[in-house]
Write a structure and sequence with these properties.
By secondary structure, the protein is α+β, with helices and mostly antiparallel strands. The chain has one domain. It contains two helices and seven strands, in the order αβββββββα. About 31% of the residues have low confidence.
Length: 126
């Protein structure tokens, strides 16, 4: 998958949505963040049992609590790189001049997409 292709990103998102909620790790300039497309925080107050598979975090369905949230507020392309804009629940003081907003670039979706491909292959073998 070419992470710069909007069609490839769209395909990855549709594949992601077909298997239900999942949380992936995205390396951002402010440090690692765990997120879905309704992105949730990582080292920021995430509690519960989990399993990590190639940088993908699967929450234990019976008990987990979120203490931090971001909301996807838009989509754009900078140069050739598609991204989602999000607003952080920490408020307008987070990131100074950005006033609480950040970007999640589609290139960070690549590892999520690759793990989904791996999971599909594994489910075919069962």
């Amino acid at each position: 998958m070419d992470p710069r292709s909007i069609l490839a990103v769209d395909h990855a998102i549709n594949k992601y949505l077909s298997v239900g909620p999942m949380i992936g790790t995205f390396g951002l300039s402010v440090g690692p963040m765990i997120g879905t497309f309704g992105v949730y925080g990582s080292a920021f107050d995430l509690y519960g049992e989990s399993e990590f598979v190639d940088e993908i975090f699967f929450p234990h369905p019976s008990h987990w609590t979120w203490g931090h949230v971001v909301v996807i507020t838009g989509f754009g392309v900078q140069g050739i790189y598609p991204f989602w804009e999000f607003q952080n629940s920490y408020g307008p003081l987070w990131r100074g001049a950005a006033r609480g907003f950040g970007q999640l670039y589609a290139v960070y979706v690549l590892s999520l997409y690759m793990v989904l491909q791996w999971l599909s292959c594994m489910s075919c073998r069962l």
